[in-house]
Every structure is written in structure tokens, then in C-alpha cells.
Amino acid sequence: MFRSLRLKLTLTNTAVTGLIFLLLLTGVYIVMQQGFQRQSERIMNSIASDEGLGYSPYITRPHRPLDPNYFFVRVDSVGNIIDNSPNLTNTSEEIYALVDKTMQVEKDMGYISIDGVSFRFLKSYSNFRKDLLKIVFYNTQPESQMLTRLLVTIITIGLVTVLTTFLASLFMANRALIPVKKSWERQKAFVADASHELRTPLAVVQTNLELVMGNKEDTIESQLYWLDNIKAENIRMSKLVSDLLFLARSDSHEVSAPMNEFPLDVVIKETLSSFKLICESKNIELKDNVYTETNYYGNEGRIKQLITILLDNAVKYTAPYGKIAVGLIKSEDNIEIKVSDTGEGIPKEHLEKIFERFYRVDTSRASKSGGTGLGLSIADAIIKEHNGRINVTSDVGKGSEFLVTLPNKRKYH
Ligand code: ADP
User: Fold this and answer.
1) Which of 39, 72, 111, 170 has the most neighbouring CB atoms within 10 Å?
2) If we measure between CA atoms, which residue out of 164, 154, 141, 142 comes closest to residue 28?
3) Which atom from ligand 1 is nearest to the alpha carbon of 360?
């Protein structure tokens, strides 16, 4: 797919550039050709009207030497050559042949060719002797040689340009496709992981349903174990689906969360209190280090979701009798939320990857604790939406610290 896309991009680029160049160079050629034609026409007209060239007694001004490619002859009514310009280098046979051929042409201006050499001619009748015809010739050979050289140069430049553009476009297309390729691969992996994650709860629901259906006479109460399993998997699936939906929406920037000013310290305290019970049941000490009143401009719901994810992980990965602490630090430019625990910690090689979708350090343990590996990627998306950043420091066996830094966009007093 990417190969053909790259080729298409490259060819389109080359074709467009080639066409632009072709138009430009054709323009240059036509302008040059017409320029030459106009110039020769002007010179021929001036020679035709200049009666003094070796003939008229009225002309007194000196004449500049005539370009050897321009010359003229005067012929009488029967075609005898009476006179010619002083710069004539051709033999008299050649001149007679030229005059003969020109006389056969009815037009006053045109082209004739002798021995493969093309001449432009212009016939003009003398003002003094109406029986005399002046024919001005222009040897177009040097001009056509110049135009041929120009054409060869233009074609060479055109070919080199097309080749260079092709190579440059190939290189650019390769570079331009790198992020597209990466995001495509990510998307593919995401869909594969999502289907894989959904397959397990669906299979569990299916088997449990079959068990219930196989014992139709039994009461609901006696089948409560299987029904509870179905319910738990259903809850897990709907959480998974809503997490996936959140990430898909945040990827496409479909809806940006409405931002408002709210008391961040209060929101953190509220979230903390919802974890009190579970911490007590696990004998985990939950320390509240939120002392400063802090108003923050952001999306309250999402910030609450972010703190919930970090606290939920802290509880999940901290053994009984451990400690969890949440702090809030406000400075001139930033607001920092710190969630630390004395849990199992995260090995260094995993630290960078834990924000990737579906990434779990220990897959078997994480799925036992209900983890899908989406929590931290959602947290990351929320932080990015608020133009913040997150840092993790962790020591295996000692604990982890997640530090969220949000810009203090509106500074409150
Ligand atoms: P999960 O739903 O599996 O918790 P997350 O995206 O929230 O997914 O976390 C990714 C992984 O990072 C987890 O599987 C876990 O291995 C590790 N992790 C996250 N938070 C902590 C923590 N506080 N202590 C130890 N490991 C953690």
C-alpha cells in the first residue's frame, strides 16, 4: 500500500514539476524564436527601404557595414541582376538561382531554400525606378543553428530537471510517509490489541452463559456464581469500550473538552476520599499532602479521571501495608500533582513504554488486577490536552512517583 502511494506521490510531483518546466522552456524558446524573426524582419525592412545602399544619389550618410547574412540584389523587369549589395559573398550562379526561385513565389515575403540552406526574402519596388525590384535576402542558417542549440539545451535541462525532481520527490515521499506509516502501524496494532482484549471477556461471557443455559431448571440464586462472572466481564468490557472510544476521539481531536476554572485541591481531595475504603481494606496508608488552595483552568471531569487513573494504579500495584501519597504544588508558572507509592515499582526498561496503549509490564499480573494497559495512555492524552507533561521515577521494590506538571495558564492570587 505504501509502495504504490509513494510511487503515486513521486510521479505526481515529477509530472507537475516537469509540466511547469516544459511550459517555461517552451515559452523561452517561442520568445527567442519570435525575437529573432522580428529582428530579421526589422533589418530586412530597413535594408529594403534604404535606397542609398550603393545606388541612390540622395543618401549621404555613411552606412554601417552590413551583416554578411543580409544582402540584396536589384533586378529589372525581365530578371537581370542590375546591382547588388557590396557584402555579397555568394557566386553569381547561386545569386541567379536565389533570384529565380524568389521570382517564382508570388508573395512579397517568405522563405526559399537552396541546397538545404534556408533564406528569408523581402521584395520591394524602388521609389525612383518603378521597373527595378529590390530583393533583400537573409540567410537563416546561423539563426536556426542557434535555435537548434537552444532546443538541445532546453531538452537537456528538461531531462535533468525531470530526473532530479523524480529522485528528490522519491526522497521527499519517503520522508513524508514515515509519520503516516508509523501512525498506520500504530492504528493497526491498536485495532488488533483492542479486538484481542475484547475476545477474552466475550469468551468468558459465552462459556458462563452456556453453563447457565445448560441448567435451565436451576434457580437464579444457585447460578449466581456464573451470572456474577458474566456481570464482571460485562463491566470490564464496557470500561474497555469507553476507554477505546476516549482514545479514538482524542486521536481525531473530535471533541475538545470544555475548559473551566475549578478548585483543583478540592477535586483531588474528593478523588482521594473515594479511594479511602479500598486502601483501608488493603491496609494501605493514603496520605493527603494537598495544602494549598489552587484554582485551575481545565476540564474538571478529565482532571478527575487523570487522578483516578494514577491513584487506581498506585492501589493496584502497592502491596498491603504500603503507602500512597498525593501532593499538590503550585508555582508561578506551573501546577504539579504528585502521586507516589511504595509499591512494586517499574523496571527502568519499561518506564518509557508504560504510556503506550495496551502496554503492561507484567501481562499476567496486570490482567488479574483488571488492568488493560490503557489507563496511562488515557492519562497521557488528558495531560497533552491540557498542554502538560508527566514524569515517572521508579525503583523496583521501593515504589514509583508520577509527577504531572500542568501550565498555570491563569495565575490566581
Ligand atoms: P493497567 O490498566 O494495566 O494498569 P496502565 O496503562 O494504567 O495499565 O499502566 C501500564 C503499566 O504500567 C501497568 O501494567 C503496570 O505494569 C505499570 N504501572 C502503572 N502504574 C504503576 C505503579 N504505580 N506502580 C507499578 N507499576 C505501575
Assistant:
1) 72
2) 154
3) 14
**For the domain 2-147, what is the CATH code?**
3.40.1840.10
Answer whether residue 412 shows pLDDT above 50: no
**CA nearest 18: which of 157, 176, 173, 174?**
157
Strand partners, 123: 135
CATH homologous superfamily of 260-412? Histidine kinase-like ATPase, C-terminal domain (3.30.565.10)
Interval between CA 347 and ligand 1 midpoint (Å): 11
pLDDT in tens, 154-180: 899 889 989 999 999 999 998 989 998
Measured distance CA(364)–CA(22) in Å, rounded: 64
285-289 β-sheet, strand order: 285-289, 323-330, 334-341, 399-407, 389-395
CB 326 within 8 A of CB 307: yes
Interatomic CA distance for residues 348 and 346, integer angstroms? 6
- All three cell numbers of 373, joined, read 494497559
List, for residues 278-289, the tens digit of each pLDDT value: 999 999 999 999
Pocket of ligand 1, beta carbon within 6 A: 313-314, 316-317, 341, 343-346, 354, 359-362, 366, 371-377, 400
Cα dihedral 257, 260, 263, 264 sign: positive
**SS3 state at 14:** helix
CATH class of 176-252: mainly alpha
Instruction: Please list the residue range(s) of the chain that carry CATH number 3.30.565.10.
Output: 260-412
Whether 411 has a pLDDT exceeding 80, the answer reads: no
Task: For the chain, give every residue range classified as CATH 1.10.287.130.
Answer: 176-252
Q: Where in the chain is the domain with CATH 3.40.1840.10?
A: 2-147
Could you tell me the distance, in angstroms and rounded to a whole number, from the CA of residue 391 to the centre of ligand 1? 14
Identify the three-state secondary structure at position 38.
helix
Q: Is the pLDDT of residue 82 over 50?
A: yes
